[in-house]
Amino acid sequence: MGFKEFVKRRSLRARDDKRTKAAELTLRESLYPICLVTVLFFLWGFSYGLLDTLNKHFQNTLGITKSRSSGLQAAYFGAYPLASLGHANWILRHYGYRATFIWGLCLYGIGALIAFPCILAKSFAGFCMAIFVIGNGLGSLETAANPYITVCGPPRYAEMRINISQAFNGIGTVVAPVLGSYVFFTFDDETALRNVQWVYIAIAIFVFVLAFAFFLSEIPEITDADMAYQATETHANADDKPFWKQYRLFHAAFAQFCYTGAQIAIASYFINYVRDTQPSADDATASRFLAGAQGGFAAGRFFGVFLMRFIRPRWVFLAFLTLCIVFIAPSITQRGWTGMSMLYVTLFFESICFPTIVALGMRGLGRHTKRGSGWIVAGVMGGACVPPLTGVAADAHETALAMVVPLCFFVAASSYAIAVNFVPAYRDPADAFSTTEVGLTRQHPGIDEESGNEAGVIGDEKIAHTEIEL
């Protein structure tokens, strides 16, 4: 194979009007791309878990308040809508998933390199800027990876698939606090800061190597035409409406904003909560407690997937989110082991909420899938808004009482869980995908391998319709 042929075979541009076999991938056919993309879920779980640990670390080494330390979360999650509604979504719609994966990994690596001199200069503002670049990279990865896992393979198992992949996100959030407890909190401040530098250098090297691996890999591109086919086959034809009338999608994005904000606020101040309610615990011990709680979070995802094998995912989602509300409420008034155990149980039931909102919110979007995924991922911006509110409450009163803030946002997010179970306009598209046979057997009818168009369904007519709508 010549160099020109090599480059041509790895073109990063995919035509969205072209119907491919990707809409009907079987479990076996989807296994390799899902495993490759699942590595990304571990990456941002590790990054997010590291951020929660650094939150307390910088309070100690730089002498900043709890509310100011939430600037890390504000920079990290504030970058998400810029990526998911801006540059990453544009790349996803005009090039494809693989190009967006490579773009996000490169941004992640650049941000990790920028972090090195900022930590050397002990500049909290500079480090927040580095985290903002990293957030843009991870926001780009989430914009592509969440919908890719959801649509790569039989639609019936979408919620189970994304929760299994997201479980590796949970494993990453366990590894990071454990690393932090030994690398950041058991050394003097100068040594700890140097350790943070080398952690980010190692991250940069790894993600650049992974970006090159994605360039070399041949993974199926899932086009708008493929998603329109799935919506038609499952009779969940929500994509026949203009994008701005997809109210189910925007409700899901609102729920994602509220839920993610609550989740991030709890994790961000978990170490502070333990220190305030258990004075005998030092920072290293509290960080290991956080790792244990994140372990429960990861285990909850596997348990949720097991339940989804027998119970409709929308019911599991409603039960888990309701139990988040039930168990966080006592943590506000209780102290010691009781209060911390309530947060442990809350994190366990948080587990499946984020990925299940993604999967349910994208049901039936058809040709709007890529655009819609950007809105749901943009809801992650709640992680930039709710932690500062929680930090202000913690500074004014105490960390335990501040847990009333995430409680309120959990309640707001539950409006979507209730709607998707009891409102027919929400429930029916979700159930249509749960019973479809698409992808369960290997058959790719109606695909023209030369033109990529399904006879009479997708082609110039689809492009014209999209141009008129826009």
UniProtKB/TrEMBL annotation:
> Where in or outside the cell is it found?
Cell inner membrane
* Alphabetically ordered keywords of this record: Cell membrane, Membrane, Transmembrane, Transmembrane helix
What is the top-level taxon of the source organism?
Answer: Eukaryota
Keyword Membrane set for record:
yes
What's one Pfam family the UniProt record gives for this protein?
Answer: MFS_1
How is this protein situated with respect to the membrane?
Multi-pass membrane protein
One GO MF term: transmembrane transporter activity
Tell me a GO cellular component. plasma membrane
Q: Give the residue spans that cross the bilayer.
A: 31-51, 71-92, 99-117, 123-145, 166-185, 197-217, 249-271, 291-308, 315-333, 339-362, 374-394, 400-423
UniProt entry tagged with the keyword Repressor: no
Predominant localisation class: membrane
Q: What is this protein identified as?
A: Glucose/galactose transporter
Q: Which organism is it from?
A: Daldinia eschscholtzii
What does the organism's lineage look like at the top? Eukaryota, Fungi, Dikarya, Ascomycota, Pezizomycotina
